[in-house]
Amino acid sequence: MHRRPSLLLASLLVAACGDTPDPNDPWSDDPPVQGAVIGELVDGAFVPWEAGAQAAWVWGGQGGAMITPVVAVPLELAGDERLAHITLRNLPDPGFPGSSGELVQFASSEFEEALTEVDGQLLTPTLPDQVGWSDPGGVRLRLEATVRGEAFSTTTTVPIEVANDGADNSCSELPTEGQGCVYTLLPGTLWIAMITPSETPSACPDPQTVEFEYWPDDDAMGHCSGDTWGTLTMPDGRELPGGCLEGLGVQSEAYFPVVQKTLIAGTCTPLIYEFGFDFSACEALCAGG
Question: If phi over 0 gives left and psi between -120 and 50 gives alpha, with beta otherwise, what is residue 180?
Fold first, then answer.
């Protein structure tokens, strides 16, 4: 079964930054009501975090330490909506002064994700929430989550402690390749989100902009993935000519296996997607264009 893509509109590809609301975003600006629940996935099941819960941490793909919460939203609040904007805030816990670690550097993070119905509630994917650069074991915080749809807004806060032991699904366990420039390898799925005529001048006939979303095959390693949106191009970076798409099987909402390669050492391209496509027919069209 394929996971539902997290975004369906090109206008939602980039989350708004800063405290000033974007007048073009679709998210509700109503005051949030209580109802959301923060927790984690344990053996595929959602487990809410109670006050004082121990939150496992992992090393992220770029070397940061992060917790990976999941936020649940009641079905009756979201209605038919399945896309949401999520804000996580890492607030110092006043009950434990001096135990906030590096939280001041990682006050908040924002995501736009799909909500998936599981056991009568809607769940976000695991959300990579950085809490430090060094081992964060013992850090105390009040984790606030606010989830906004177009017609609903819900929030919750739970005091937690970052566990002294890191989680098993550390990004350092991913296989690597390369010398000088070293990449982690994360197999996953590519979903073709949108195909539109390109506005970029090209020697290729009828160039097409093919936008895709990526997610890892192992949801527990989602925090290790880099940017999950990209544009499908030939190895030389040119966009695909329309005449070769059918031969590749590239069409809207199609799925393909892919390996995401994230640079962890060296000064090469930071993020590469390794496809199983044979682009020779596309290259031939461009050569004759």
Answer: left
